[in-house]
Design a protein that fits this description.
The protein is mostly helical. Helix content is 73%, strand content 0%. It has one domain: Ferritin, core subunit, four-helix bundle (Ferritin, Up-down Bundle). α2 packs parallel to α5. It is elongated and about 55 Å long. It starts with a helix and ends in an 18-residue tail after the last helix.
Length: 176
């Protein structure tokens, strides 16, 4: 049985992950409105990935006899100054999520909840990948500057990202 402190904290993390999905979907719509379909595609897949993360917490709570309690989702930002500002905001958000995961790891250690620690280790590793992915794109955007041709090339590169997960089936391996 999952203890109440962990159950409550994981419910909060479900909210964080669903908000992440909502935020990235908002970023996708921003890029759709800019005619940058590769960037939009990339963020739509990122939104799906975040729902997958929420469902991993959901299934963990249910499997351990806890109760999932959904909360209101905050309204995401809808406008940004530039492509670069979107990715900088995304990286800042991922750093926030990393901090949340680290806090959950601390709590699971304090509560001696080793099953939750096992789940959370996956998220610790995932957050390293997430931050690296956003940082790599930011580096490319910094190199491109305002050159339309370079942005077009990055847009084409991001359009090649493959889907492959059902966000509501947390048993599936995550696609990159």
């Amino acid at each position: 049985m999952i203890n109440k402190k962990i159950n409550d904290a994981f419910n909060q993390q479900i909210n964080e992950e669903i908000f992440s999905s909502y935020l990235y979907l908002s970023m996708a719509t921003y890029f759709d409105n800019q005619g940058m379909t590769g960037f939009s595609h990339w963020f739509r897949l990122q939104a799906q990935e975040e729902m997958f993360h929420a469902m991993k917490f959901y299934h963990h709570i249910v499997e351990r006899g806890g109760r999932v309690l959904l909360k209101a989702i905050q309204k995401p930002e809808i406008n940004w100054e530039s492509t670069l500002s979107v990715f900088k905001a995304s990286l800042k958000h991922e750093q926030h999520i990393s901090s949340c995961i680290n806090d959950l790891m601390d709590l699971s250690t304090k509560e001696k909840d080793y099953a939750s620690r096992s789940l959370l280790q996956w998220f610790v590793d995932e957050q390293v990948e997430e931050e690296a992915s956003f940082t790599e794109i930011i580096d490319k955007l910094n190199l491109a500057g305002k050159q339309g041709q370079m942005l077009y090339m990055i847009d084409r590169e991001l359009s090649a990202r493959q889907a492959g997960i059902n966000p509501f089936d947390s048993s599936q391996p995550e696609a990159e």
